[in-house]
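Supplementary notes (optional reading)

For those who missed the lab, this is the record we used. Protein: Glutathione S-transferase family protein. Length: 216 residues.
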Amino acid sequence: MLVIHGVTRSRASRLIWLCHEIGLDYRQEPVIQAYRLADPMARDAPLNTRTPAFLALSPAGAIPVIEDDGLVLSESMACTLYLARKHGLPLGPADAAEDALMMQWSFFAATAIEPDALTVLFLGDSRGSEDRALVANAAERLMRPLQVLEDHLSRGGQMVGNRFTVADINVAEVIRYAQGHDALMARFPSLIAWLQDCQKRPAFQTMWAMRQAEPA
Ligand SMILES: N[C@@H](CCC(=O)N[C@@H](CS)C(=O)NCC(=O)O)C(=O)O
């Protein structure tokens, strides 16, 4: 059976959402981020990203990691793209061209959007003037890539193939990090409508309930 290492309050959320879309059985090992623990090396510390047994699986010390039929794989989007391709339509690609487009949009989200979107997520509620400047700069840099998504979604409605796919999951989970910045998101009506549709899906709701059930 597929094993997902990582708590749901992490990028493992992408994999969990995908598994529930596909109806794929999995076992979750709740490895937690070391930075969320006071002493990750303490004897009674929960399994975390600095635990030697986990580092043996993932030398980079990052979640999520999957084990599937002897394959050990890290990088959340490599995992979602692999699982979607393995389990096929409709979440996975119909052909090489769709596969390429799914990778294109996933890499675009991970490289052009995710770092600044995470700044918005982590510092968005901060009152400090330095943090507010960082958020303002991040929001400014996000304008261009978000406009690319806005233009794309206003033409087709979905990321790839006029249907909901792994590309929607990968991109939606990145955009979620910036979703709380109302002034930014209000500029992109097609993007926000698409995101809301993605998040209404039962599989997303299942993943979200799992996340909320975990300690913050
Ligand atoms: N690009 C990687 C990033 C992985 C990553 O940074 N994961 C975070 C949690 S979402 C982590 O494990 N941090 C561990 C730590 O800082 O201790 C991916 O998409 O999987």
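If you only remember one thing from this example: The chain has two domains: 2-90+205-213, 96-201.
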